[in-house]
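Why run this: before we spend reagent on co-expression, it is cheaper to look at a predicted model of the complex and decide which construct boundaries make sense. The entries below are exactly what would go into the expression plan.
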Amino acid sequence: MRFLIALLLATAAYGQSGVGVEIDDVTDNRVSAGDLVGSLELRVKLTGTGLDKATAARMLVKEARDDRGTTLSDGTDKPDFFPREYNSGTLQLSVRQPARAASSVRIKGSVELFVPSRDPNAIVTVDKALAKLDTPLSAKALKAAKVTITPLSPAGYAETMKTRRLDEKQIAEIRAEGKKRGVSEKEIDQMIGLAKALEGLDSDPPVGAVILSGTKSDFDRIFRVEILGSDGKPIDVSGRTVSTRGEASIMTLAPAQPPPANASLQLYILTDKARMSFPFDLKVTLP
Amino acid sequence: MKRFIALALFSASLVAQPKAKPGDVAVVQVNDRRTNGSFSQLMITLELPGIPSIDVGAMRVLVSQAVDDSGQSLLDSEAREPELETNSRALYAAGDKNVPLTVGVTLKNPARKSTAVKQVTGEIELFIPSKDPNSVAEISKFLSFSGKTLAHRALKANGVEIAQISPTQLAAEKKRLGEAKRKEYKDAGYDDETINSLVSSHLESLLNIEESDVLVRIKDPNKRIQDLSYVDAKGETKRISARDDEGFTILSLWGEKPQPDWKLRVSMKTSKNIVRYPFSLSNVPLP
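The model came back. Tokens follow.
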């Protein structure tokens, strides 16, 4: 069953003359298993004109409450932008499990669109980006967006990974923090063991991988990175991961074949001008 | 972990005869998945502390009565009787006898206004190979039996016959089936050119197996076969996908080629290794 819950209009701009939210699916996935609880998941479709210009979208929840007064979101969750070409353009939205006695939920927030065509600085192409490894990419638009990204050589990657390894001081800090939060010694040991095991996974990047280094906030402002081949077309990338430790992040792109030496990088930057926001207000009948 | 123990009436009713001992089942999870999309159901996960997961090859739950506290029946009258499902967790239990068996009881969603499942009664049916020496046939180096019928005491005891088809036999069988098809088209009045085209097309799709597949002919008049798997030289079990075609069965490992030193394991249901335990749950709180 599909039903239009609300259609809220925002100021007409750049073709997006009003973006509405149509509920496609409601799942109240109620779970009780110890401390584990469920969640309310919505799959929504966006409606309105000009959506074809948007490369990505996300739903930001400001307030969610069921009709029994239970608060279902603290409004701080900021999911990543989701490509419009995935899942037929639908978006997922998740809030906490409503009360069983509730029959409806009210959710307020905004739909954010990423429309690169609104800002010439939103798509930055850096030619021969892999020619100078271990040196930050140079482009006016990157500088303007205050984004600093460095492609790493294997040696540069190895050096960076060394600095990310847990040392005794950091382990002591984790233990102290865990204790402060009432976590048991056993659980702290498990967490440290897991962190060390994950370090092992980072030791060898895939052959031909493009490794980019930056801060977490740099990568938070990047929607996507493409590797362009000699013909200027994106190379098929089978795996993209971002690993963050503290403020330092490493992005690993694993192309299907090693990129040519003259490959370019194309970065989609989530600039303010390229983002549009439309409020929504949904009343959802619970199944 | 919050659990409650529900009384289970473990007694010796059943298909098979082992003297079941009284025991408990514990509810470890309740998942009331309510959706206007797909897979709306209530799943109650039970743990059977007295039964090691590793001992159980497959299981199913047959529910005879289920009702919530609003009086609504939770039985799906249109659902087919569930089939024995392979106990995947046993494959990964790594020989650990301390991991208890868990089974899932699938029911219809209770009313939203209800707060508990008032009553569930039924039987848990388990396939426990260790209860019968004729439960499992393992044929060492089975690939060396190309063109021959596999010989094993357990296969014979269960009236199961498995013949491995050699490439020569396959070619002869395809030729025979092609000729039968040719006669069918001829009798229908097609001209020779059309017949040649149709037969050629038919043979292309007929018994079309990959190089890594193994073709067998299985006779199992009593429907005893529960599961087919390979066991590699290290003792690792690899589950086989079995597909029937023209009276033959194609065994596939999704592209992985079985090796000459592998075994073929055939697990079979018998009157001794299928055990049913009655159970009853009362007042299961809903999340």
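Chain A has a mean pLDDT of 88. Chain A touches chain B at residues 1, 25-38, 43, 97, 100-101, 103, 286-287 (CB under 8 Å). Bring this page to Monday's planning discussion.
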